[in-house]
Amino acid sequence: MDDTIETREKKPTLGKGVLFIVLLIAIIAALVLVALTQRSAEGPAVARTTPPPVIVQTETVQYESALVLEERFSGIVQPRRTSQLGFASGGRIARIAVDVGDRVTNGQLLARLDTRDLGAQLAAAEASVVEARANYNIAKTTVDRQQTLLERGHVSQQRVDEAQASADSAAARIEAAQAQANTLKVTIDLAAIRAPYAGTITARMGDEGAIAAPGVNLLELVETGTLEARIGLPEKAAASLTEGEVYELVSARGAVEARLRAETGVIDPSRRTITAVFDIMDPESVAAGAVVRLPLDQPIDEQGFWVPVTALSEAQRGLWSIYAVEADGSGYVVRPRLVEIVHSDADRAFVRGTLEDGERFVSDGLRRLVPGQPVRTSSTGATAERVGISGGLNP
To answer: How far does CA 276 lie from the centroid of its chain?
Structure first.
């Protein structure tokens, strides 16, 4: 025999493998059975205590049959008249008697051109008038003499007619000379700018010594003694105004009384408004160019109630919800109710919805609430109502 001993590896038999699997399944089943037994004996771990009520502030639903909104319509205060003043004829500016900001009276001299050449022409024209009158007097005397000689038979009718024609020509020359003189007087008068009404100088576009061209603006005059406000209004709002009635406008300085003078009655195609013109009763109460506002109450035929914006939470499809306070056994809980916003201001909204008049709703603190949350209210807050957990609604 060889000294080498041949070793053979022993392999597990099929019976041993089956036995191992059966034992493993039995152990797992025993563990599962023990776990199910303990779970059924103790039951699921469910909180059996009610969460403490959350302190909230509430308000009462108070329905209104209609909504009345105060709308303000803006306009500009402006003078009734504003004039750009200049010379009708050109020339050298001899004097400007006013400056920007000066208040002037009706007829006051504002500026004047150098009119020395016009004065010389006027003197010559007036001398021509005197000469023409003298020639007319001689011609008239000649007519009288020729008429006397005709009556005595010393001259013919033709001589008389010739003398009369000379007299008529002399009279025409008087009128022509006088017209020339009057033209020069008008030119001299137009060489001076006078205030057409009382007001304030708001612009000056020239100085002494400059050559003014005909029709070029030199001064701007604004009538400050009479102010008006032009305000664009919707057609319905304009129809509610009464012509001649006094209304209170609001400016940066405060209240401004104004009387409605007229409204155009024509809708502006660009702004879709009708212009109403108000006469400012006290021009000193507001400055020209200031913005004024006309407050008007605009009724909206819509039933609803006011809520703070802090009471609203966004819902679906453009709706909102508020939490109503409902009785639940011995206490109170909150339930969401859908509402629709009709109008909103900075801190409140006018809504309509499923709440009844007199119901309570949460006005603040929605971030801490969920539907069915027990609540009670704090004693602080001017608009808060007190909700007792066991005593109901307290005053």
So the answer is: 14
Q: What is the pLDDT of residues 240-284, one digit of tens each?
A: 888 999 999 999 888 999 999 988 888 888 888 899 999 998 888
Q: Which of 327, 314, 308, 297 is nearest to 237 (CA)?
A: 297
Give backbone dihedrals phi and psi of 80, rounded to 5 degrees, phi first: -70, -35
- The pTM for the full model equals 0.52
Q: How far apart are CA 360 and CA 355, in angstroms?
A: 9
Tokens 């504003």 locate to: 82
CA distance 69 to 67: 6
CB atoms within 10 A of CB 363: 23
The answer to whether 237 and 79 have CB atoms below 8 angstroms apart is no
pLDDT band, residue 151 (cuts 50/70/90): confident
* Cβ 200 vs Cβ 222: under 8 Å: yes
- Would you say residue 144 has pLDDT above 90? no
Whole-angstrom Cα distance, residue 342 to residue 312? 13
What pLDDT, on the 0 to 100 scale, is given for residue 38? 60
Q: How many whole angstroms separate alpha carbon 198 and alpha carbon 190?
A: 19
Whether 4 has a pLDDT exceeding 50, the answer reads: no
Which of 326, 347, 348 is closest to 336 using CA atoms?
Answer: 326
CA–CA separation, 240 and 228 (whole Å): 20
Concatenating the DSSP letter of every residue in 85-96 gives EE-SS-EEEEEE
Q: Where are the alpha helices (DSSP H) in the chain?
A: 14-42, 116-152, 157-190, 235-239
Written as six digits, the tokens of 1 are 């025999």
Residue in this structure with the two tokens 């069915």, named with its chain if needed: 372
Q: Can you read off the two tokens belonging to residue 276? A: 């109403």
Q: In angstroms, rounded to a whole number, what is the distance separating the alpha carbons of residues 74 and 290?
A: 10
pLDDT tops 90 at residue 109: yes
Locus of tokens 């016009």: 118
* 3-state secondary structure at position 216: coil
Helix (H, G, I), strand (E, B) or coil at 284: helix
| CA count, 13 A, side-chain hemisphere, 214 | 5
Q: How far is CA 44 from CA 32, 49, 64, 98, 197, in A?
A: 17, 15, 52, 99, 97
Closest CA to 70 of 261, 350, 352: 350
d(CA 230, CA 218): 28
